[in-house]
Amino acid sequence: MTADLEPGEEALLAQAFESKRSLFDLLSTVRTRRVGLGYRMETGEEEAFTWSSGQAVVQPAGPLRHVSEAEPVPLSEVEEALLCWAAVGRNGIALADVPVQGALAGMLSRVGRTVPSSSNDLSVDLFVINDEGVWLYRPPDDDVQPVEIAGPADYHKVLTWYREGRRQVSDRRPDVGWPAAPPGTRNVNALGAGQYNLNRPGSTWLLPVGDVGLEWFNQLLTSYEWSGFYLMDPDSNEPAGCAEWIRPGFLEVGFPVPVFDELALLLHMGQVGCIVQNIRLASEALGLGAWTTGSYADDLVLGAYPELAQGLGFSFLTRDAATNPSATSTCVGLAGVKEPVMVPSPRFPDAASAVRYVRELRYQQGGSLAPPEGPATSPYQPAVMEEVLHHPRAQVSDWAEEAAIATVEYLVAKHGCCPAYVNPVRAKLSVQVHHVDASFYRAFGVGNGEPYALTPAILEHFGTWHPGMPDPAADGTS
């Protein structure tokens, strides 16, 4: 990796890492600031969403009427790079401090990130939506060091990974809809009542998109190999295709399929919650507004209802309503970009292909149990790592694989796909980041002097991060 940074970029990265505000100080002021430069609120006036759906939209008039007089100012490349790194960036080698006899082999990757994930499966990627379009941010996982940002000489990695780890998915902002209401009816809006400023010009919408299917399949293997739980059909209370392995020392306790599916979703949301909080704290440190939002239909945002909104263009499986247990939308992903572990799908047409893929992740290059590529690529000393790799409990047994395949085949035969009760791709919680419109908070907010919503970092943001640009907050007007 080579650093190709301008002196000004190096100084800004140093500013971010060497700021004197502590975590506890940031927590004392962090808020969801929803109004950015170029936004408007409750005007009752029609506006065309030319940047997305093209629709003419009206937000009803209300007591918080506000039209920002400032033009939108997009985040800089350095600002976005810092936010992406805080969200899901690499920070070194995962410690893997799990007993070998206690499901160490459930871990999938050796790459550490700024947020935890179940079994370190790295199942959530970050979609970056800005004025240039839609991007997938996935930092490269090669040449991993024990600690990636060990000092000033490493700051450049944040921007380098941003440049190398972004892949453009679309060259424009997505159409996520804001349907107009027919005369005499309510405005039934799948994006939620508060979403008028979502996806605005100048904003950066950071959307975590998770492979819940990967969580599900890895937990299935982990449960069968190390926990002794097996999946049970809730309609019959009988084993879900795995009866021949139910005996002492193998599978012993039944677990209803809907509860197991919910567990996978909860593990996913735990990771996403950490991502969202990291973005909020990073934005607070940088003096940016961070608007946390989840009151939208994420299947619509992904693209399940193109007749209403194109969304991100993900594909969905058409399921038989008679066998779909909870009317669940089932996303098969975006080809070549984000393809979940689910059956059937173009990537995984059958149970065996999905189960074996997940089983092998931990043993292939970059996996938690792959042979180290050098002394710096393992959390353990060489002799210890060698002993770990050759321990029998560091392997997923053939019988566990066979039982898992049989369970998946059972669920696909009954419900048409697996996972059956949850959507294998979710994007329910996200953060939109923008430059704060100080005039809104000065007009409506309270405080001693400046409104308490406006921290020194916000008021000084343009002078620090955009020197030479006019400062919208400098004289109390925007």
Keywords:
alpha+beta, 478 residues, 7-stranded antiparallel sheet, 18 strands, NADH Oxidase
What do these coordinates show?
The chain is α+β, with helices and mostly antiparallel strands. It has a single domain (about 5-180, about 190-465), classed as 3-Layer(aba) Sandwich (NADH Oxidase), CATH 3.40.109.10. About 30% of the residues lie in helices and about 15% in strands. The protein has helices spanning about 5-20, 25-30, 75-90, 155-165, 210-225, 255-285, 300, 350-360, 380-390, 400-415, 440-445, 455-460, 460-465, and strands at about 40, 45-50, 55-60, 65, 90-95, 110-115, 125-130, 135, 165-170, 205-210, 230-235, 240, 255, 290-295, 315, 330-335, 425, 430-435. Strands 7, 8, 9, 10, 14, 17 and 18 form a 7-stranded antiparallel sheet that branches. A hairpin with a 2-residue loop joins β7 (about 125-130) and β8 (about 135). α5 crosses α8 (about 350-360) and α5 (about 210-225) crosses α10 (about 400-415). The radius of gyration is 24 Å and the shape is globular.
